[in-house]
Automatic annotation (TrEMBL):
The keyword Nucleotide-binding applies. The lineage of its organism: Bacteria, Bacillati, Bacillota, Clostridia, Lachnospirales. Residues 8-52 form the UvrD-like helicase C-terminal domain. The keyword Nucleotide-binding applies. It comes from Candidatus Mediterraneibacter caccavium. InterPro entries: P-loop_NTPase, UvrD-like_helicase_C. Keywords: ATP-binding, Nucleotide-binding. This is ATP-binding domain-containing protein. It comes from the Bacteria. One of its GO terms (molecular function) is ATP binding.
Length: 87
């Protein structure tokens, strides 16, 4: 059950730098998938202290995962996503 009296915030990934939240939801529309750099993605997923939910299409997820898989230093982001999302 959701507490309707609980505050909900929407902030850009850039504004969220340096902050942490118990629950984070990241929305990546297909039209913006090319704009998601490793730095932006890493910042977004590491804001979550307890819960992370990423809303993206299978196609967008595939593009991002493939682009990060090619670079060993970027694979840490994929490890974080897999552990937080249980995949």
């Amino acid at each position: 059950m959701h507490d309707i009296n609980k505050d909900i915030y929407a902030v850009s990934i850039h504004k969220a730098q340096g902050l942490e939240y118990d629950s984070v939801k990241v929305i990546i529309p297909n039209s913006n998938s090319e704009k998601i750099t490793h730095g932006i993605f890493y910042t977004a997923i590491t804001r979550a202290k307890k819960r992370l939910k990423i809303y993206w299409s299978a196609e967008t997820m595939d593009k991002i995962v493939k682009s990060f898989s090619a670079d060993e230093t970027k694979q840490r982001s994929l490890e974080i996503v897999r552990s937080k999302l249980g995949i």
